Amino acid sequence: MKVRVAINGFGTIGKRVADAVAKQPDLELVGVTKTRPNFEGRRASEKGYRLFVAGEGKPSDFEAVGLRISGTVEELLGQVDVVVDASPDQVGRENRKLYERFGIPAVFQGGEKADVAEASFNALGNYLACRGKRSLRVVSCNTTGLARAASVLLGRWGIDHWEVTLVRRAADPAESKKGPLNGIVPTFQLPSHHGPDVRTIYPDLTIATTAVVVPTTLMHVHVNHVRLRHAPRDAEEVIAAFRASPRFHVFAPWERVEGTPQVMEYARDRGIGFNDMMENVIWHDGLRLDGRDLYFFQAIHQESIVVPENIDAIRAMLDLAPNGPASVAITDRALGLGVP
Ligand code: NAD
Q1: Which of 7, 55, 197, 287 could form a disulfide with 35 if both were Cys (CB 3.0 to 4.6 A apart)?
Q2: pTM of the model
Q3: How far apart are the first and last CA of the chain?
Q4: Hey, what CATH class is 3-139+306-335 in?
């Protein structure tokens, strides 16, 4: 029997996780919630997803515009085995009370503080440690990208010290009230909160992060300098390790991918749902090795990188796969990742 899943919050992350759940062989999407009608609610309805009303929402507002409502969020929670909370930052913490009342396990997102859940989660990083937990927090897009890279580097060469500058997108494509539109805004928290967040997955990792925000809506870019504990043979060995890892996509020089515009164009060509790029993007030309010093860029599609991790978080909590690689393989096959 499939595990029944609810998605509470159907915005940027929620609508993607809903589609991803619907594609998994062992999961069933029971319904999604909206607080008020909008184009995303319309799309949910067009896709045949059952819509429930969350927060302060009123069913009559939906019915007035012709959107069929199957009940309240409470009614949805009564029909599922697990809930993925994809509501805005800090609303998840409020919703937690509801999930506790229903006694169902919950996955939270990176906009919540770490203590919202029993543990923070990354599929390549700490799947086994998260098995059987009643609540997990999938770390943010930037932290997920860093944790994945750590999983490749730590296991093979060890890390003495890692410094990374995060060049962050200003807003998601659908947002029209955020900026900057013309400017570069340093984050005056030095180092930034991202390093401590990576340590919720890898507690012993020495990592210092800084961040600037730039006027773009698609992708972050990480500028990494890692002092490895042991020197790889050469840069090719590191490239090969990234290529061999799930959830990494390495662009070869001949592909002429100069930056994020071509990465997103590739994603549109590939046409996975929402034209997403759920993998960490590495440029073959954007990686250099000098002894133990590794320099590399990686790009992170903020809207989608956490989507497969949400699926694996469900499997870890409900013990649906024996280990991380097994879950990742099921998830990625269903999503079409790693398939040229
Ligand atoms: P979003 O604003 O696009 O979507 C949130 C949805 O939740 C909206 O549809 C909103 O109407 C709905 N909502 C509001 N109040 C609610 C309530 N009480 N109960 C249920 N739903 C409610 O936000 P998002 O970008 O999808 O972010 C969701 C979470 O994912 C946040 O924690 C965020 O930090 C995290 N996250 C976002 C990104 C990103 O780039 N957008 C990346 C990684 C993680």
Answers
A1: 55
A2: 0.98
A3: 31
A4: alpha beta
